[in-house]
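Q: Could you predict the 3D structure of ABC transporter permease?
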Amino acid sequence: MIRLIENEVLKMLSKKKLVLISVILLVLVSLFCYGENASYKHTIMRFSGTPGQTQNYNWKSMVNQQILYLKNTMNSQYIKEDRKNSINIQIEQLQYYINHNINPITPTSAKFTIDFMDEAIYLFLPLLIIILAGDAVSGEFSSKTIKVLLTRAVPRWKILLSKYIGVLILSCIVILESALMCVIISSFAFHSGGWNEPMATGFKVIGNKLDSSNVIRIYQWQYAILVYSLGWFVSVNIATLSFMVSVIVRNTVTSVGIMLATLIGGGFLQMFLQDWPMIKYFFAVNLDLTQYLTASYQPVSGMSLSFSALVLCLWSIAALVISFSVFQKQDVLV
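A: Sure. Here are the predicted structure tokens for ABC transporter permease:
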């Protein structure tokens, strides 16, 4: 079994997809880092009135100005109710940071590394995993190598399991690679680690109000591990679903296209059908797990971290059952 897994990993590496993903990550992380640095300088200039001044400023005074700006924005008659609720939660969080002496403004390597996964977990990261796993089985059909593969005196389920484990191994590599690139690039850009700075987590939204009664303070490095663990969990689920589609469809382009359509379609469903209670059971709506750590406003009621994790687990279990059932029974030699 170990030899089978090794062969599958080497086969996937030979396709150079991991190299492509590495290049995409390098470019995107660099651009994101540049953008965050520029945004930071713009914020300093906007609220302090001193162009180019990024040292020795009163961050509490600037956060108070941000709160005032958000309050003025919230009072606008053109702001929708959902947006007002989201802004109000943001205001309460900023006030909590002031009261507990937590600086949310100054960028550090730790904050950037965390923010990148916060933004990537629900779309960018799944896209990379789909690219990686979309042809795990369908690629064998497209290249006409499936017959050669099945002539080995190895049960079908072992062949399929080795491919699945290979996909999971490469998915883990993508997560580790993302973290390493973020740490290295942001360390050069911000010249500050910030890994031992405090971080507040455990916020909850109850009745459009922020509940901070269960908030705990942890170090940034602890929070980063938590965030990237959730990113790994999402990657495993997306890899499993992509693997299932790859088994069923037999065509790489169609397999990747189906996963991309469902992933992007989930965002539209959440946007336009948020009042439909069944939408919360769709896997693509439950990918943004890190939002529960920061108490982002929930457009779909009844969702929580445990709920979303359970939904994703059920989707993955169903996908594995379907994958192995189909692969065992279908006539793959045709």
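Q: Anything worth pointing out?
A: The chain has a mean pLDDT of 83.
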